[in-house]
Specification:
With 889 residues, the protein is mainly beta. The protein has no helices and 73 strands. This is Filamentous haemagglutinin FhaB/tRNA nuclease CdiA-like TPS domain-containing protein.
Length: 889
């Protein structure tokens, strides 16, 4: 046995399994211009070189290299003793061969550990290396040299309780990351064993591949050759161990970003980073993370991007149970998963698949395009739940938890698709697709089979900015937007949250099977510019918004610039088959609950169409299609059975010089106005020009309290007053006037211009309203009227016999009389004894001087009933008839 004697922790001892082909040591050799210990010998089989040791350790500052005989491409090194390998110095190959280090007891890289390898490196705690011809290079039952093979390695065989692999660096500065374990560009660095722990160190393979895998139980991991070395394959049934990166980094960035694969059960990144950045014109490769649970915390980042013309790789993250992105770094560095294009190269796609996804404390999942013609797509699937919440800040910035796909240049944004059972977005968190530099916006599609809950806002930043929770589809360009689609079983939106859309030529569809009665739905456009919107459709069963919650659409810009080509606001269609209820405002009164298609730009406000049986607005709520800048107001259409306003407003006003919009109310039953409510199309409320809009009301009843100052107004300042056209059967408590008074008024005035008109019409009675089509065939009365009547003293009343028809009262007191003719009474035919039905006789053309109502009825001998003009003389009247016998009317 030959051994290289160094301190105990640096001992390298060959075993006797390879006999005369055992390893040979040449200490104090010169390798790459520096002193090193060279390991020669071993068993050469074709392109493979085999070494076998009982111990393999490298001390601090020691440099240990394997010789590389001509023609050898792979060097396989096994450790058959019972101790882990401690590597505290440099491990290298004096040549271009790949190096495999196999020790089932563990591999521990220390602070000064380095790799100096021109080929690829694989460190593993597998028990054996499997070859294509069926042979194995085994550490537990080492075969003799005669059984070694020239075949290609195809897999790693693991036994029970495989040893751990760790890389631990004692950094002088807690923020330092040491760059130690690296291979040459376009090569592979693999660490595969039990639990994997990387602390304060970097693992690098520029343009190449990094493979980190953790295994806890017996199984096989496949090896597949690639142009950069190999890739590892994992069976889904293989039990995995844990992977921890703490202040560590995995980096394959280069001319074309390399691939990175992590396979483990619990994968945790703590203040760590995983990068594959494309720096040149080569296309990048992918990052793939597969685990049971993945945690990113304290500023950890996983990123694929491109800074040049080469395409970025894709980022694929799979976790059977959960993904948590939490606790952003103290320096404001946001945790997150990122796929970005920072130049002309295309951004990659970002795909997430898990059961439960949690993003909190400023964490982000982002696919961003800063320079490419088109950004990548972002797909998030969480079969159980997605939770996005909260924010964090540093001295200058507010980092909001978010899932976003956006573009900051003329390139298009990719699509953002989310599939889950439950989606919760709260405390200022956001889901966003946006374009901010002139490109086309991508689709935002959210599918939640159970429910979507949007709630609240963040704490303010140091500069007072805060974030409102919601789903955002924003377009600040003149390009057509794609679609916003939200599909869920139940939608809960409250405490200032909302759904915000700014779609140019696109469509937004909200499909909700059950809208929670304590919800708010808000649409608000981008704060950059607003372009030629088309239609937004909301179709819900019912919703209610108490306590400052609301269903709202609004187009809003925080600053106005004349050189931005603002477009018309989106039209909003709302259909609720049960009711719509809007309530409340913020304590300071600045934010109202309600429905809005307002414009804050130079273009017109959008139209708003509402269809529902019951529409209620109270406690300061608003329904508006107003213009707050230079555009005209939109038009409002309400179709309802009942409309109730209580200290609330329906307005289509303009603040400056443009015309007020039109309000069209088609209400089947009642309009009720209480406590300073208002319906207004007033123009120029800042005392400027502009014609008042028209108000058209069609309702049976309009009711207000005279002293509560509820108004219907189509006023103007210097322009022409609008017209108020009301068609109602009754108007109570509100009066047409020439000007507004502290009472309930209807006005169409102009302070300096031409007065408008107030027109009130009562619908005329239609003569044909009460006509009833009678059957042509005569009905056999004997089959319709029972011929029995209870006579017992205690008998209960059975019913009533009511006669209606021509000459009788109409069915309703508001309907006209069907006619002025009376029935002609028939005379008794004493000779008629048959059982045939009564026949209608033609009445003689006589002109009685007086019309006499029927005074009684008689029963003929055949059982028929006939009405007569006077009580018959031959029929005695019974005075003891019980109340149970039906009375004629």
């Amino acid at each position: 046995m030959l051994a290289l004697q160094t301190p105990a922790q640096a001992q390298i001892t060959a075993d006797n399994t390879l006999r005369k082909e055992s390893s040979l040591f040449a200490p104090n050799s010169t390798v790459n211009g520096a002193n090193a210990d060279l390991i020669n010998g071993g068993a050469v089989r074709g392109a493979n070189l085999f070494h076998s040791f009982t111990e393999f350790n490298i001390g601090d500052g020691q440099r240990v290299y394997f010789g590389n005989p001509a023609g050898v491409q792979n060097i396989f090194t096994r450790v058959t003793g019972g101790q882990a390998s401690n590597l505290n110095g440099t491990l290298g190959v004096n040549g271009a061969a790949n190096l495999f280090l196999i020790n089932p007891n563990g591999i521990l890289f220390g602070t000064n550990a380095r790799l100096d390898i021109s080929g690829s490196f694989l460190g593993t705690t597998a028990t054996s290396l499997k070859f294509a011809d069926g042979t194995e290079f085994n550490t537990k039952a080492p075969q003799s040299a005669e059984l070694l093979t020239v075949s290609t390695p195809i897999g790693l065989q693991f036994g029970k309780n495989p040893g751990n692999i760790s890389y631990k660096v004692q950094a002088a500065d807690s923020n330092d990351i040491y760059y130690g374990l690296e291979v040459k560009p376009s090569k592979t660095l693999s660490l595969v064993g039990g639990n994997i722990s990387l602390e304060s160190g970097n693992i690098g393979a520029s343009n190449g591949a990094i493979e980190i895998g953790s295994v806890s139980e017996p199984g096989v991991i496949s090896l597949t050759p690639t142009d950069t070395g190999w890739t590892l394959g994992y069976d889904d049934a293989l039990d995995k161990g844990n992977i921890l990166l703490s202040k560590a980094a995995l980096d394959t960035s280069g001319e074309g970003g390399g691939s990175i694969q992590l396979q483990g059960k619990y994968v945790t990144l703590n203040s760590s980073a995983i990068f594959s950045h494309t720096l040149g014109n080569q296309n990048g490769k992918n990052i793939f993370i597969n685990s049971s649970d993945l945690i990113l915390e304290n500023g950890s980042v996983v990123s694929v991007n491109t800074t040049n013309s080469g395409k970025s790789g894709d980022l694929n993250v799979f976790a059977d149970n959960s993904i948590q992105i939490r606790k952003s770094g103290s320096d404001g560095l946001a945790n997150g998963l990122y796929a970005q294009s920072l130049s002309t190269g295309a951004a990659g796609n970002l795909t997430i698949n898990t059961k439960t996804l949690t993003v909190q404390d400023g964490g982000q999942i982002s696919n961003t395009n800063f320079g490419s013609p088109r950004g990548g797509d972002l797909r998030v699937t969480a079969s159980n739940e997605i939770q996005i919440s909260g924010a964090t800040s540093d001295t200058n910035r507010l980092f909001v938890s978010s899932i976003l796909n956006d573009s900051y240049n003329t390139g298009a944004t990719g699509n953002l698709t989310m599939n889950t059972g439950k989606l919760v977005v709260r405390d200022g968190a956001r889901v966003i697709t946006s374009t901010r530099g002139g490109g086309q916006e991508g689709n935002l599609s959210v599918f939640a089979s159970d429910y979507i809950e949007l709630s609240g806002s963040s704490f303010p930043s140091p500069y007072g900015y805060y974030s409102v929770s919601g789903l955002f589809s924003q377009n600040s360009s003149n390009k057509a937007s794609n679609n916003l689609e939200v599909n869920t079983g139940k939608l809960i939106i409250r405490a200032g949250a909302g759904i915000y859309t700014s779609t140019a030529s696109g469509e937004a569809t909200i499909s909700v099977r059950n809208f929670n009665p304590s919800s708010r739905l808000l649409f608000i456009a981008s704060s950059f510019s607003i372009q030629d919107f088309t239609q937004v459709t909301v179709d819900v069963r019912s919703f209610s918004s108490p306590n400052n919650d609301n269903l709202q659409y609004e187009t809003f810009v925080s600053s106005i610039s004349n050189n931005i080509p603002y477009g018309k606001a989106t039209n909003l269609f709302i259909a609720a088959s049960d009711f719509i209820e809007l309530k409340g405002e913020t304590p300071d009164g600045k934010i109202k609950s309600g429905l809005f298609t307002d414009s804050y730009s130079v273009r017109d406000a959008g139209d708003l169409i509402i269809n529902t049986p019951l529409l209620r607005a109270f406690d300061g709520a608003r329904i508006t299609v107003s213009s707050n800048y230079e555009g005209s107001a939109g038009n409002l259409y309400i179709n309802a059975s009942k409309l109730e306003l209580d200290n609330s407003k329906i307005v289509a006003q303009t603040r400056l010089s443009n015309n007020g919009g039109n309000i069209n109310l088609n209400v089947k039953d009642l309009i009720l106005l209480r406590h300073n409510s208002e319906i207004s199309t007033t123009a120029g409320i800042e005392r400027l020009s502009g014609n008042g809009g028209n108000i058209n009301v069609n309702a049976p009843f309009i009711i207000a309290v005279p002293t509560e100052n509820s108004d219907i107004t189509a006023n103007a300042f210097s322009g022409r007053g609008g017209n108020v056209n009301i068609r109602a059967q009754s108007i109570l408590g509100i009066t047409p006037r020439l000007k507004l008074l502290p009472e309930s008024d209807i006005t169409a005035s102009s302070t300096l211009g031409v007065q408008g008109q107030v027109s009130i019409q009562q619908p005329e009675v239609q003569p044909q309203q009460g006509l009833i089509e009678l059957p042509e065939e005569v009905i056999d009365a004997t089959r319709k009227v029972a011929q029995i009547c209870p006579r017992e003293p205690d008998a209960k009343q059975l019913g009533e016999f009511t006669i209606t028809g021509r000459g009788s009262l109409p069915p309703s007191p508001i309907e006209s009389l069907p006619g002025n003719s009376t029935p002609t009474l028939a005379t008794l035919d004493t000779n008629n004894t048959s059982n045939e039905s009564v026949k209608i006789k033609q009445a003689p053309e006589v002109f009685p001087t007086q019309i006499i109502e029927a005074q009684g009825w008689v029963k003929t001998s055949d059982g028929n009933i006939e009405l007569i003009a006077a009580a018959p003389l031959g029929t005695p009247l019974k005075t003891n008839a019980r109340a149970a016998c039906p009375q004629s009317k």
